[in-house]
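FORM 12-B: Structure-to-Sequence Request
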């Protein structure tokens, strides 16, 4: 019988590429991961890994087993969700990941609603970039997360994750100019490696220029204050631009940001997900009705 815990390690190795990366993500030692994978090979009766020095790659049998591991782990997730549903009501920890704008604009009211309607749940929020969400969900450090996608940027989650749409919002340029006219302006962009950074670069390239970056700032409130101080232009989503500071004039551009609710495959039937989603949709509706542009 194949051990699901070892299958999880093999799946992570297929995605992360090294035993050291798997160990770091799942808080094991590298030697423990290596031992568990060797034990899995014995259980399978076939070599699953090819080791050349420090490099480890999956054999065809290893890749085949990873494909089945996805289905097995999703089925176990559904089984745990079914067991949880037999309790009297949603209870226990609910580990939530969110990007900064959502954590500020959507989660506080959603958690208030959730606490009033389901006091047995204990929400635990961690701020996280959407690019890191899939790994955190697979590792089990998060149960559910808010992620965003932009035009010009490929989807951020992998096939181990399911998503449900929550919000689509327009983007704004922090000037009265059109995007094509901002080629000579200094730019305020997010930290390299984030989705927001990639979106801005590709949007500018699609408009025919490379942005002249002056500042790297992730917090949109700070971005807007710097724009108001004449330090550059930036692209900001509607949620962040609801109350721009004096001196900032916003122009809607043909770019959208889509916010999604993300969770592990099989977790969709967990009794904690439905009330959290319902509370989140209520808070989102109120946030979008409260003001903003467009």
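FORM 12-B RESPONSE
SEQUENCE OUT:
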């Amino acid at each position: 019988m194949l051990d699901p815990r070892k299958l999880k390690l093999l799946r992570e190795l297929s995605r992360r590429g090294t035993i050291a990366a798997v160990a770091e993500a799942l808080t094991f030692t590298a030697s423990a991961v290596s031992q568990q994978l060797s034990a899995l090979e014995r259980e399978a009766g076939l070599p699953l890994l090819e080791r050349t020095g420090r490099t480890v790659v999956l054999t065809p049998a290893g890749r085949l087993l990873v494909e089945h591991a996805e289905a097995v782990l999703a089925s176990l997730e559904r089984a745990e969700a079914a067991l949880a549903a037999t309790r009297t009501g949603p209870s226990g920890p609910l580990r939530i990941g969110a990007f900064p704008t959502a954590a500020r604009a959507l989660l506080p009211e959603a958690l208030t609603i959730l606490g009033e309607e389901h006091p047995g749940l204990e929400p635990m929020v961690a701020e996280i970039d959407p690019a890191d969400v899939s790994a955190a969900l697979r590792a089990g450090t998060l149960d559910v997360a808010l992620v965003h996608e932009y035009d010009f940027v490929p989807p951020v989650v992998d096939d181990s994750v399911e998503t449900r749409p929550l919000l689509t919002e327009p983007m704004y340029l922090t000037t009265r100019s059109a995007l094509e006219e901002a080629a000579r302006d200094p730019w305020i962009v997010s930290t390299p490696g984030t989705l927001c950074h990639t979106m801005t670069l590709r949007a500018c390239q699609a408009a025919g220029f490379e942005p002249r970056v002056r500042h790297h700032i992730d917090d949109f409130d700070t971005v807007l204050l710097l724009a108001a101080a004449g330090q550059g232009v930036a692209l900001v989503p509607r949620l962040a631009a609801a109350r721009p500071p004096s001196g900032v004039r916003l122009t809607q551009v043909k770019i959208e940001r889509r916010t999604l609710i993300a969770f592990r495959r099989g977790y969709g039937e967990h009794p904690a997900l439905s009330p959290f989603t319902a509370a989140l949709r209520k808070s989102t509706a109120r946030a979008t009705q409260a003001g903003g542009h467009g």
